[in-house]
Amino acid sequence: MSAVAGTSTAEPESSVDVVAEANAMLVQGKRNLLCGEIPDAVNALQEACTKLAGKYGEMGDELGDSYFHYGKALLELGRIENEVLGNALQGVPDEDETENEAEAKESDDKVENPEDVQEGSWEDDDEAEGEDTAEDIEDDTKENVNPDDIPNFQLSWEMLELASVIFKRKNTKEMSLKAAQCHLSLGEIGLEIEQYQQSVEDFQECLRLQKEHLDPTDRLIAETYYQLGMAYGFDRKFDVAIEHYREAVKALESKIASLKKVVQEAEAKGDIGDNLTDDVVDEARKDIAVITECLPDIRTKIEDCEQEKTQTNVKELTQEAMGVGSTTSGFSSASSSSAPQPIGVKKADSDKPNDISSLVRKKRKPEEGDGDGEKKKMRQENGTDVDVTTSRC
What we know:
- The chain has twelve helices and two strands; from the N terminus they run ααααααααααααββ.
- The chain is mainly alpha-helical.
- Strands 1-2 form a two-stranded parallel ribbon.
- The two termini are 49 Å apart.
């Protein structure tokens, strides 16, 4: 009896220790993320997710915040790796251009010296090239199976999707706004990997949730309008981008007006000098200063979109005048074939997604190498899109 009692007492104590350790790692990860210590934040938050998943299950309500901050940290880590990769590739000629030049030179040599070409040599070269291609594909497949090679952006996407599913289970203001922040971060991933249509959909869902629970002048709504303008601008839909930028300006100007009213009312009542009133007034004045600094940047974005729109129209008119159309040039077909495709996201049959234990793991630091091979593209080397297996809401 005493042995059984001792065992039953030890299990809750051990369980409490695990939860306490997980919460401590969560707090540490948040602090690292706030201070810009991204690799440390990823490691701490990954550990928190692992411990909480072992206690409450992978879809426990207690994992919502951990998944969200883990996804945010992975997003920042992916940005760092892209920035490092971009700096390293500055001045380096494009790989396709180098290959084309080499092939052209080799072809010229063969044409200039036709007597050196023996019968059947080209066929042998083709066979060897085919064998190399098959080996490369096999190597790529093996690499893709390795969970350590999952790109940070893809893993961030998975974590934020899981957090969104958990938050949306409870139809409360707090949970809905947390789900909105998940979609905001998902939209930012879309911008990074240049999948702008998917990005727009996530920003729109974020805006829908925010409008249900926030005042129209709230700065969060203005931020979402701004992100929508960015997505539409990158997608070269300048009219829609300008419209959303203006909505962001409108929301911020309304916020400034409401904050100024708070300050004026406090001054008119003579409440200045009261500690509580002073705190409110000081906070309002700080917000006014911050928002005022943001407005010029948004107005500059509007001007940039208008200029881009004008230049695009002039270019199209010039091409039409010169008789160059989409049907007579190969540019349209080439651009359409190389356009990034949306990430495949399966619709959820239920709130419980597939097993994600392989996704919650420690990521490499940026200097140790990048999981994906192309800046801002979540694409494999064989050109196919990465299929995200986690369900969307």
